[in-house]
Structures are given as structure tokens and as C-alpha cells.
Amino acid sequence: MSEAVPLIGTVAIRPVREGDGGALARAYVRNREHLAPWEPLRAESWFAEAGQEENVARRLAEREAGTALAWVLLDGDSVVGTMTVSGVVRGPFLSGNLGYWVDGAVTGRGIATAAVEHVLAACAGEGLHRVQAGTLVHNAASQTVLRRNGFDRIGLARRYLRIAGRWQDHVLYERLLGDD
Ligand SMILES: CC(C)(COP(=O)(O)OP(=O)(O)OC[C@H]1O[C@@H](n2cnc3c(N)ncnc32)[C@H](O)[C@@H]1OP(=O)(O)O)[C@@H](O)C(=O)NCCC(=O)NCCS
Q1: Distant-in-sequence, close-in-space partners of 157: CB < 8 Å, separation ≥ 6
Q2: Using CA atoms, how far apart are residues 116 and 96, in angstroms rounded to an integer?
Q3: d(CA 102, CA 120)
Q4: Is residue 87 a contact partner of residue 68, using CB atoms and an 8 Å limit?
Q5: pLDDT in tens, 122-164
Q6: Could you say which DSSP state residue 39 is in?
Q7: 140 CB near ligand 1 (under 6 Å)
Q8: 42-83, pLDDT tens digit by residue?
Q9: Is 115 exposed, middle or buried (0-12, 13-18, 19+ CB in 10 A)?
Q10: 35 lines ligand 1 (CB under 6 A)
């Protein structure tokens, strides 16, 4: 089983695993207001252990199928964020979509920046060629995290994702991995 890798202070990162559902549900309850403007509308089951355990099982199946990679950020036993690379396409594309959040109680400490760096190294290790990420136009903190990790702005994708109940424009970023 993968050990947690230290990131910043007492916060560490490791791949999500079976049994993380309870800590994930508690984290989403704590961060409900913090995350609401930046995420899709969530069903009530999202905030319950069973719902999160289902989510974990789906991620683990996707990992097995080679279509996603997912991590939790931990401070002791508490989940304080997640990192997910979803929609991984192999063949000549070798690309995936990065998404993440950090607990509102520990933002502004460089945790997301360090975690994205860890995730990019893992993606390179998996043989991916490219990672894409989209942020809401006004998500300055997330754009800072991406720029610091070598992402380039691709452009504006109109009404790209349904966030907080509305189709919203996103700025798309990409980071190429390796040099060939
Ligand atoms: C975006 C997010 C993951 C950043 O996490 P974090 O651990 O605070 O990130 P870091 O500390 O590594 O870097 C964030 C940087 O943005 C800066 N920042 C924060 N809010 C900002 C704002 N409103 N305007 C400009 N810069 C801002 C921070 O000061 C920090 O830079 P600094 O280190 O120079 O001070 C976190 O704020 C979050 O979870 N937000 C809600 C969910 C979300 O937006 N997810 C991403 C969707 S694309």
C-alpha cells in the first residue's frame, strides 16, 4: 500500500484507498461553503460516508482501467483536500484532466502548489504526455497554482462546465510532460 508523502508542514499526499469515504465525507461537510462556488451542485449523498465510499470505489475502478488517478491530502486522519486526474485517454493522446481542492482552513500555505507538483511527477511516471486543467475565469488562486507548476494558458472555453448550477466559462491550461 502506498505510504503518504509529506508535502507542507503536517500535510501529506497518498493515493485514495478503500475506507477513505468517512474522512472524505467529513471534509466535504466542513468545506461545503468554501467549495460551493467552484464545484458542481452536489446531491446530499455526496456529504455522507456511503456516498463517498461509492465515489472512492468508482475512482479505484477507473484507476484499474487506466482512466483516472486520485489522491487524498491528509493532515493526520483528516482529509484536507483531493487531487484527481480524470478522463485519462491513452493511445496517441496520453492526456488527462486535473481537478483539486484544499480545505479552507489550510489554504494559502502552498499546499495545492506542492500537491500539483507531486501529481505531475506521478503522471509523468505513468507515461502521460499532457495534463489539462480548467479554472473559472475569476479563480485567481487556482490559476496561480497552475502557473507555478508550469501550465500554459490555452484559451477561454465558453460555458465549459456546469459549476454552482450554471454553465460557466473556463480558462483552459495545459502542461506538457517530458520533452519528446
Ligand atoms: C485553489 C486552491 C486549491 C488553492 O489551494 P492553496 O493550497 O491555497 O494554494 P497555494 O497556497 O499553493 O497557492 C495559492 C496562491 O494563490 C494566492 N491567492 C489566493 N487567493 C487569491 C486571490 N483571490 N487572488 C489572487 N491570488 C490568490 C495565494 O495567496 C497563493 O499565492 P502565494 O503563495 O503567493 O500567497 C484552494 O483555494 C481551493 O480549494 N479553492 C476552492 C476549490 C477550487 O477552486 N479548486 C480548483 C478548481 S480549478
Answers
A1: 134, 169, 170, 171, 172
A2: 13
A3: 17
A4: yes
A5: 999 999 999 999 999 999 999 999 999 999 999 999 999 999 9
A6: S
A7: yes
A8: 999 999 999 999 999 999 999 999 999 999 999 999 999 999
A9: buried
A10: yes
